[in-house]
Structure prediction request, 638 residues.
Amino acid sequence: MRGLLLASGTMSLCDDLPLPTARKGWSRVRVLQAGICATDQALDRGYMGFCGVPGHEFVGIALDGPLAGKRVTGEINAGCGTCELCRNHDSRHCKHRTVLGILQHSGAFAEQLSLPNENLVHVPDSVSDSAATFVEPLAAALHIADDVDLARHKRALVAGDGKLGLLCAHALALHGCNVTIAGRHPERLPLLPRGATLVSGWLEASAPKDVLPFDLAVDATGNSDVLPRLLALVRPRGTIVIKTTTERPTSICWSSLVVNEQRLIGSRCGRFAPAIAALANGSVPVERWIAARYPLAQALQAFQHAGTKGTLKVLLQIS
Amino acid sequence: MRGLLLASGTMSLCDDLPLPTARKGWSRVRVLQAGICATDQALDRGYMGFCGVPGHEFVGIALDGPLAGKRVTGEINAGCGTCELCRNHDSRHCKHRTVLGILQHSGAFAEQLSLPNENLVHVPDSVSDSAATFVEPLAAALHIADDVDLARHKRALVAGDGKLGLLCAHALALHGCNVTIAGRHPERLPLLPRGATLVSGWLEASAPKDVLPFDLAVDATGNSDVLPRLLALVRPRGTIVIKTTTERPTSICWSSLVVNEQRLIGSRCGRFAPAIAALANGSVPVERWIAARYPLAQALQAFQHAGTKGTLKVLLQIS
Prediction:
């Protein structure tokens, strides 16, 4: 089959990739569309040492399994199925998991992929193909509500106005937060949830002195250097959710965290059902964030476009 | 009055310190005993730039106010009383707070101190003077249970087998945790809660490979360099509580925290009532940790003794 292959640090389009094989308890999926995400670009730069087909934001048609013939997307972590975590329905943290397009698992930038049956989720007709490619990242954004009591964290700051930052802003607004986004793109104001505020310069220089401390800050910048600044903008007993997966270490002055009893929470993937529901009722207007669509044949150009400063979502039309 | 004064980086015994003045809503306390804590030693080395009488672990007799004549100890944070935090009973985080013996508030290493009436807590007869000096640090240790759902964090590792580490181990054991302490003093095994395990070398080198990951780790080492090691010893979605208030920054590799969805929680002072209850029923045998008692006249020697490697608690007999 045709697909994009990342091997030895080089991305190339291949026409002779092996089709996924049939496997008990797994379904094969014909990929329709897939989104290019910052993680894919990081993989291309060497993150995780990934070798294989990248891509984990997708919509497709199940070719076999319980959802055969249906339009589906899928949770990207495939656990071993037997360890204690998997038995407790937490395959996201299974030590032996594979992760679609990220860790020892061929991903969505190819004509077919395969996932365990229980990972696949039916996409209702009210969600377009393009919108369905946002289910995975929106689920990750909505996952903040699983880890933080948002009723006690109403005043929220989202650091970063890229794709993930916008999704986090919408996720928090859906949960009733009063959202401020600190970013570099004032022109993105129309893409924010209603009532949200867009500020710039707060992450590079000091925020204005009269800013009330936030209850919650979410780092969606891709740059953990902002953490000390976020800690300074959050109230005592407030929370910082970290979405940035940079491998570069950053220093924190721990005494201030301890004296202020703040908490830092690492946050990754989320449940798909709430994300599909939000897309189905049009709560998050993700289609307005699509900068371009490319056929799989032009996947390399699509990656180049996705990496251009200021570009939001680039989609690949696979089949 | 007589007391120990820390000024311009020098500790000295003074006989002519001013007595605390009467103040509406505050009580004066004649100090009976006070404990020397690692924070006092850090203040002596310049932490917080404190100038004044240190000391915040105490028992005394209230000289006026609602508890006049009673034996008391007291919560150490004195809020402004008017800000939103104080109105919501969280003066511990009031921006304008003073902290007994730590921040712009004369402390317990003197014949008298004063605190807001609502900070004072009656010490029942079942708690000795010496045990009562442990109320404040035991409250801080028990405070872990306010911030962490210990029913989901049964397997706990306490890093550090000093005073605070021992108190945290007992606090966690009281809440039903299965406790391991990583420290440097195998001879302290008899001071641990029943059933706890004492291991050494885990914080300096690698823990044995077959160690199951912990649900919770508490840093009570005074050295935040152990944090990366604690993150490696804690399971996905596990928690690290930081009690260490070092101003020296330490680097963390955030991507591992994010992928494992771990959380770091800064933790400081706690509620006195549960600590007094635990001491009253003999659950935490703190009197066995007392290495020495010195009269106030020998306070400088007491500090020297407290700073000697391997010394647990040194108390000052004030009056």
Q: What stands out?
A: The two ends of chain A are 11 Å apart (CA to CA). The mean pLDDT of chain A is 94. The interface with chain B takes residues 85, 90, 93, 147, 224, 227, 235-237, 242-255, 257-268 of chain A (CB under 8 Å). Residues 166 and 191 of chain A are 7 Å apart (CA to CA).
